[in-house]
Input
Amino acid sequence: MSKAEASLMNRIVSLSKRRGFIYQASEIYGGLGGFWDFGPLGVQLKNNLRDAWWHSMVECPPMGPDGKPLSIVGLDSSIIQHPRTWQASGHAEGFADMMVDCRETKSRYRADHVICARYLSADAKISGYISGQDGDNTKDQISKKADKLGRKKGIKFDVDLSELIPLTSIPVENHGRVIGPDASKAGTLTDPRAFNLMFESHYGVLQTDETKVYLRPETAQGIFLQYKNILDTSRVRPPFGVAQVGKSFRNEVTPRNFIFRSREFEQMEMEFFCPPEDGMMWYEFWVNERMRWWEEVAGCKKENLFAHVIPEDEIAHYSKGTTDIEYRWPFTEPNFGELEGVAYRTDYDLKQHAKFSKTKLDYIDQESKERYVPHVVEPASGLTRGVLLLLCEAYQYDESRPSPEWLKIKPSLAPTKLGIFPLMNKDGMPELAEKLYMDLRQDYTCQYDPKQSIGKRYARMDEAGTPYCITVDGETLKDQAVTVRDRDTASQERVAIDKVREYVGAKLS
Ligand code: GAP
Output
């Protein structure tokens, strides 16, 4: 299959690997499902997105409704916390997906990801459901499976693909009539059962129930645990926020869609503590602010973002409102899928931790002497998922370019800002180009590339999403000017060497 024919997602995955953005973890051992490594360009891109978020949250928080900057501080809490943390938060009991196993193939599926279609044999003697796994080719999977089974059994299956039904919507007593996604006959799926998503470990030398700990499934709880220390040791008062970026771990049953859902990933979460009566106002504020941020700071097209207000009967019992900020992923298109959740969590978490730890976590206003447990609004986004958004937004295909595949990453987030080349390795060009490189690398991530034709070098930089390339050529020694090429337009401009810093500074700011 040619590149142009491969699905958009497959092209993004293969470019990511070929150019060192993202590799499969443990690849030389055959890989490990749901784990990914960020290569040289990928880690730089991820750090840039993380830094942009940190800057907008902690270093330069947005203006509040009163026109004054909000007060938000940072935290870096432990991945492993006291196990009671997860009892208080509800993760020990409730953080589970419903799973089914296949007795025939030993495969395990998330029950809501087993998608079924009704069938009838041509002689109308047998009926039931043929299933596939949820994805962009579910219908295809089911019809191929029906053909294959039909050939094997010498029966023609009449499959109704107009209505796809998740296994969870089929009464359990009828599960015996479902042919599992990889099974050859009906009735091999077990009843759905809860499967906790937290990874377990032990601390200390003994491996007993008392020393059992969990890798955090979200960064948020570490913030609640340190809320009191932060109040007591810094000058913040409600309304204020605490922001954290870091790894989280979930033993996802079906990690999928590249780094969209993995078992180890990074989150960028902020808990905003406010007086109870202002909770709804801050919830609306943060939904708007986060939509604005993905568009203006991360450079996402407006039409690819969607604020999905979760219906009341689907949100957590303690939440007074949840909005998912969704993105039109290549694998959900034309629909959208979650990028970030903004949840009004009320005082649930602080009250739970106060109860389980027997520590007072209320706040006393020094002026009014009013005592209350602050309410919390939480914008919780995935850093890893954010990197996938940047790659999906940036991916371009144009046969007329030096490299048909290229990345139009927003310059402020691009892993490498400048490519610097001598046109030829002679006549003083390398010396001048190296001098420029040594100067500009102090302020910008630059790559010095003296090898191969200029077209190949532009192609390499375009694939890496580098916004500008600077070439020192034969004329430079005479006119003290260089050629600056713009990645997006491929246009070239002659700029005096002593004005290059100013020129790229204005373009990259
Ligand atoms: N503290 C709330 C919380 O963790 P969540 O919706 O479960 O909420 C927040 O997670 C964000 O973390 C998601 O919107 C998503 O971007 C990211 N995320 C969650 N699970 C993930 C996974 N398995 N792989 C990659 N990103 C994930």
